[in-house]
Here is the input.
Amino acid sequence: MRVLLFGPLRDLAGWRERTLASPPPSLAALKAALAREDLALGEALDRPGVQAAVNKAIVRRDAILSADAEVAFLPPMSGG
Amino acid sequence: MAAFCQGRRDVGAVVSFTGLVRGEDETVQALELEAYAGFTDLEIGAMADAAAVRHGLIDVLIVHRIGRMVPGDPIVFVATAAAHRRAAFEAADQLMDYLKSRAPFWKKSHGATGERWIEPRPQDYQDAARWDDVPAPGSLKDRR
Here is the structure.
C-alpha cells in the first residue's frame, strides 16, 4: 500500500510517500495508524477540507482498502 | 492554436487565455505548484470535457505548468474553439474560474519572509460558483 501526502500535509509530516509493510484494512484504520505515529499529522488529516483519494478516486466516507491500494491525502486545493 | 482551425469549416471562434505568475509585491520571489500525477490531469481533463459539453465546444485545450515559477512566467494556457464566440468566451472563463479555485493543485509562495501555502481568494470561489447549477445564496440578487 502506498500512502501519499500533498501540500501542507507533506510539509507537516516531512514525507511525500510511504510504502506500508502491514497495510491497514480501511481508510479509518490507516488514519488511526498514521496518527499513532504522528499525532500532528493525525489531527491534520481530520481537518475540514482534507480529502482522501483511493486509487486516484476521491472517497467520501470510510472505505475498505486492498493491500495494494494507493491512498492519497489531499488538503484543500488552492487552484493554480 | 493552428490545430484548432486547420481544415475545419465549423469553427468560427477560437478564444485563448494565458495566465502568468504575478508578483503580489516585491517580497514574492517564486511560486511552487504541486500536483498529483495521474489525478490532477484526470480531473482537469474531466472538467475540460464537461465544459465542452456544456458550452457546445468543438475543441478545448488546457496546458498547465507545475513546479517552481517566478513572476512573469506563464503558468496556464486555455484555448476553446466553438462555432460562435459566446460559447468560446464563456467556456474559457468557466475553465479559468475552475482552475483558479477548484483544480487539484497546491500552491506555495516563496518570498523574503519565507514560504506560505496559498488558499484561493474569496473572489475565485465566487467566480467558480457562478457556473454552478444550484444558485449560490445571494446570486439571485445579482441577476435582478
Observations:
- Chain A is about 30% helix and 25% strand.
- The first helix of chain A runs from residue 7 to 13.
- The beta strands of chain A are 2-5, 17-19, 51-54, 57-59, 70-74.
